[in-house]
Amino acid sequence: xxxxxxxxxxxxxxxxxxxxxxxxxxxxxxxxxxxxxxxxxxxxxxxxxxxxxxxxxxxxxxxxxxxxxxxxxxxxxxxxxxxxxxxxxxxxxxxxxxxxxxxxxxxxxxxxxxxxxxxxxxxxxxxxxxxxxxxxxxxxxxxxxxxxxxxxxxxxxxxxx
Length: 161
What we know:
This protein is mainly β. It is 7% helix and 32% strand. The strands form 3 sheets. Strands 8-6-5-9-10 form a 5-stranded antiparallel β-sheet, covered by helices on one side. Strand 5 (48-55) and strand 6 form a beta hairpin.
């Protein structure tokens, strides 16, 4: 039995991300590209994947959701760099992130706030479609992912300004 894992040519566990993945807005001026992600070893019974990016260190009291992609077909095992800005696989849908956008929103921690962690997670799901409406909040999506996932794999990268 293989182990479900997530890798990336662009980001590494525990390492500082390049400015390429910084948001463009909210005082940040990065290119706002999503990193390439590659996964393997999905659990038996996987019918779709989801990808999320979450910053637990955001000064909000509830973290900050940067990206929520659902209903990625089970035949897909990678996203190219920049996929979060209109290059997702057919069938996948993006829900609204905490910037209020239906796309990838890069890192943009407040200046001088210290190092933030960005948790890039791929979720293996037992259904082709996650039962949440397109206008669901990120908290509801997170709840449904945790309640239904067959497995998940995460890379936690860092960023500071």
